[in-house]
Structure formats: C-alpha cells, structure tokens
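Onboarding guide, step 5: your first structure request.
Type a short instruction followed by the sequence, for example:

Predict the 3D structure of this protein.
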Amino acid sequence: MEIILKDVRSLCGSHRIPLKPLTLLVGENSTGKSTFLAMVAHVNQLGYPSTRPTFNIPPFDLGTYDSIATYKGGRYGRADSFSVGFSNEEKEGERTLVVTYASHRGQPQVKDVEVSSPFGQLSIQILQESHTAHVNAKFQGGRTLEFDVDMSQLGTQETDVPFYSLLRLVPDPGKKAAPLAAYPDLFLTLVRMLRRVGSPVLALAPVRTQPRRTYDEFSEEFDPEGDHVPVLLARLWQEDEADKATLMEALNKFGVSSALYKRISVRRLGRRPTDPFQILVTMAGPPVNIPDVGYGVSQALPIVVQSVLAGKEGMLLLQQPEVHLHPRAQAALGSFFAQLVASEKKHLVIETHSDYLLDRVRLEVAQGTLPADKVQILFFEKLGIETVVHQIRLDKHGNVEGAPGSYRRFFLEEEENLFSRAEE
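The system replies with structure tokens like these:
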C-alpha cells in the first residue's frame, strides 16, 4: 500500500509514501509522524470514503480544517484543499482512491473523490450548496455513466454515509431516475471501486492506561489506551485455552527477553464471570499485583497483547511503544515486532524514538528472522515549515541504505563533541 497525501499540515505538496509489513517512523518531534499515522488510520476506516469524515477518532485528534490543511503564511496562506488517499495492489489489479477535502463551516468536507481501478475510472464531485453529488464513471470496455444524486435523500446532513450508498439511484434513459437494480452489473462495479476492502486498523495511544489493583469492568471493546486488555486476559484465562496458550507463550517470552517479568497471570476474586480480578506479575519471587511492579510492565502489556491478538492480515498502528521501558526492553520490542511480522503476516506501522528498538530490528534482519524487503524506515525531516519523508531501506545484513546525511547527524555531532571534550 501507498499512502497519498497533499497539503496535510507540514506535509506540503504531494506525497506518495509506501508501507511495508514492518514500517518504522523516525524523526524529531513535530515532523509529521503522528499526522501520518492518523492518515493511515483514516483511509483504513471501514466506511471510507464517507460523507461526513472525521479526523478525530481516538487516539488521533487533528482538529478542524484549519489545523489540518497546510498553512504557509504570507501570500501563500492556507491551502484551499487537502487530499488523502491510498493506492494498493488488489486481487483484480491496482486501485487508487484519493479524496480531496475543502473547508465547509470550518470542518473538512469532501470536495471530490477520484478512483482509478481495473474496473474503470470514477469521479464524484460534491456541490455543497445544492447538496448534490455528481457522479461520472467510465467502465472498462468503453461504457460510461453520468448522473447526479440528491445527497439529502440519504440523510447525509445528519449521519455519516459511505459513498457507495449514494449509488442507489441511477438515471434510466427516458426517465428521471430508476432504482439502481436496473443496472446490477454497474452497481456492483461502482461499489467495488469505492468500498474499502480489508481488516479494520487498530491504533494504540502513546501512553497506555495506568495499572489498577482490581479490575471489575468487562467491556472487551477496543480502547486505544489499552483499557480493554486486562478484560481480554481475564476472558482468555477462563474460556479459550488455545488462544490463551498462544498469547501466554508470547507474553512470557517477551517478559524474559526484556527482563520485565517472568510470567503474567490472572487472579479471580470470585467464581462468576463478572467478579473482579487482578493481573499478577511474577518476577524473582512470588506473584505480585501489577501496580506493585515497575510502570513499564503496564505500558508494554497492551502492546504485546494487542499485537498478538490482532487478526492476521490486519494492521496495527503504534505510537512510541517504548515509553517507560529500559533500553533492554526497548530492544526486546524490536525482536518481538520482527518475529511477529515474519511468522504471522501482520502489518505494523510504528512511530518510535528508540534507537535500541530500531537497531534490534536491523539485527533480526541480519540474522535472517525477517527479510529485508519486509522492512522500511521512514525518516521525517522538517526543513523550515515543510516535511520531507525519506524512504530508507535495509540490506540483508541489516545495513541502512538510502539514508540522507541528516539521518544521524545529531548523534554524530554529539559523539564528536564528547570526543572533543575528552581531548581538552
């Protein structure tokens, strides 16, 4: 998959940024890494593209149009629109879908949708004043279709509606409108062009929930801060032995390699499924309650659990998984991610400031755990008010290829200063 962006915050101009099974986002603060993650999440929403888009689904909060569209100041001012889309290889061939947004009452609203696919090309232009969608489709084989849709008929002023729902009415020659059932083949083709295919993307926040002495909530609904993870553990402990064995093996392996713990377990405080429970951590001695160990355990637990339980072929977005972790544990995360992608075909996009994590991934590539072509480093570098995204590769020995001179300039300068001080 490639993510397509134009005039999104500091990502000025047009960008096509590829993703690989393990993509690592690196760079200084405020260079656009979190914005990029938010856009990856946006294009992977199951309803994308939709009539009432939002860019503020937790853990992301990009705000209004004015806080998303590029602003250069001076005579350039703010961009009149911004675009977000994707291009990927599907079963039938390559599909590219790009949505352009303009400001409507201060909020991002769809201006147009452009699709290129093996089935043909599709263009949808939105006229906000008349609340009309103008659809123009050119199918493979030369057939064309052009019509207008009254968006108010679908209640799009009050609710969020996927764009393929706008295709319920297609004009019939000699009539003003007819049910789209009159054109079942064209309808299915249009839906294939528009509908987002794939598993939903899950995104974990950079700071996870604080540990508690007792848990008594039984909602398994995904929470970006990991509130649902203790409940998942408690359920697996009670019901699903196969999934429990897989998860506990991964948890305990990571715990030992990171030196955070030896074993994670669940203590139930009653016999009923809804009774409170505790998360226990075994280190050198007997098990202790999770608040009584280092804060790093509670921060790493949602990362490991959700990464293991995420569906195959799904995508997980992680912000700073190394938060509150010792360098050894940060390195262990690098091994964990590399092994997970190699063995289970999962896709991870990770924003990190940890050289230990990054170097361990390089080591895993050198050791043959993960093929080099499955890994990519995206280096976000801000030059003035604009961000440049450098695509950095690894060779089979884990060496960095294609990095700009600025990639490690700060660290080299720090080393030089240290040596200079020592010589003095």
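Each response can be followed by summary notes, for example: The chain has a mean pLDDT of 87.
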